[in-house]
Input
Amino acid sequence: MNYEDFKTRIMENVSRRLGQGYNVRIFSVKKNNGLVLDNLSILKEGDLISPCIYLDYYYQKVQLGMDEDEAARQIIAYYHAALPEHFHPQDYFSEESIKSHVVCRLVNTERNQAFLKESPHRTFLNLSIVFYLLFEDREIGAGAIALRNEHLEGFHLCEEELLPLARKNMKRLIPADFMTMTELIEELRSGKPAGIPDEEDTDRILEEDKEMGDGMPLYVLTNSRRSYGAVWIADPETLEKIAGKLDDDFYVLPSSVHECMILPAGLRDDAASLQSMVEEINATQVSPDEVLADNVYRYSRRLGKLEIAA
Output
C-alpha cells in the first residue's frame, strides 16, 4: 500500500470507528525549512482544538507490519489521551493575553520563502525573525501558534510592534541561557529540561563537542526551555553581554534552531574551517527541519554587531 492509499484508508477507518459527531480530515502542516507533514485532525462536535497526529509515523509502523486496524485504534487512543478535558480559548485570545505571549524564532531565509511570504518577519543577516504566540496550560501543555499576516488584524497587532513585544516577553517567558558546552552536556546526561526533544540532541551536541577538539573552550547560547533558543543571537544586548564575559570577539556556530555554539575568536581565527565543520554537522547530525544555517558568524566588539564570517 502506498502512502496516498494509506492516508485515505486510515482516515476512513478512524472516522468509521468514531462514528457520528466527529469530523476527521487530513491537512498539511508546513514545518521549518519547507518540510510538510500530513496531520490527521479529529474534531469532536463542539470542540475547538485537536491534537496533532502526524500520519507518516503510523505509515512507517504499517510498513513494518502493523495491522491497519491496529494503527487506527492507536490513533484514536492517542487522540483521547492527548485531548484536554477543560480548555477555554477565551483565556488565551484576549488582546492583553495575545500581546503578552508574542515571542520570536529564527529561521533560514532561503529555505523558508513560502512561509515568509505568508508571515510577518524581520530580516537578520541571511536569516529571518518570525513570530509566534507561546502558550502553556496544565491541560494542553506548551504550544506555539505561528503568526500569519491574516492574524494581525484579528489579533489587533501591527507588524512594527511585534519585535519589541517579542523581546520583552522572551525575557520573561524563555530568557537567554549562556553556558559552557561541558555544563550543557552534564545537564543533558543528568536530566533534560523541557524543550530538548530526545536523545538525538545529546548525540548531536556530543558530536559537535568532539569536532571542536579537546580543551577548546566552547560555549552554548540557547534559552531556558532549550527550544528555539538560537534566536538570541539576534538580540544585541545579549551579544554585548557575551562579548563582555569572554573579553573577546567571538564566532557563532549555528548548531540548530535550538542553540548556537559560541567560540572566542582569539582561540581559533579560521572561519572557513569552522564553516566546513558546521556544514558537515548539519548534513549528518541535524534533522533537516532543525537546520538553521551552514554559515559561521562573527561578533565584533568594536562594531557592536554580528556579521557573516563564512
